[in-house]
Amino acid sequence: MERSQLNLRISDQLGKLIDAKRIDLSAQIGTIPSRSDILRFALEMYLGQDLSDTEVDRRKSISKESGA
User: Fold this and answer.
1) Is the alpha carbon torsion for 12, 44, 57, 34 positive or negative?
2) 2, 28, 42, 47 - which has most CB atoms within 10 Å?
3) What pLDDT score does 62 carry?
4) Counting Cβ atoms within 10 Å, is residue 33 exposed (0-12), middle (13-18) or buried (19+)?
5) Band of the pLDDT at 9, cuts 50, 70, 90?
6) Looking at 1-68, which runs of residues are DSSP E strands?
7) How many Å apart are CA 44 and CA 5, to the nearest integer?
8) What's this model's pTM, rounded to 2 decimal places?
9) Helix or strand or coil: residue 19?
10) Which residues neighbour 38 within 8 Å (Cβ) at sequence distance 6 or greater?
């Protein structure tokens, strides 16, 4: 699947809030999610759509497939 990249500029404060949420969620899911994961989670909630199948971070999928 072709994917496009979105360049998003954020303030230092928003970056700190995103990073704090990453740490909070790490206790629940067992790994520290990426900033992109956090934004996907937020968009999923805002849009009211399950994006887990279509918007998975390809780097994770590739490393699982290659055994890395």
Assistant:
1) positive
2) 42
3) 40
4) buried
5) very high
6) none
7) 17
8) 0.69
9) helix
10) 18, 21, 22, 25
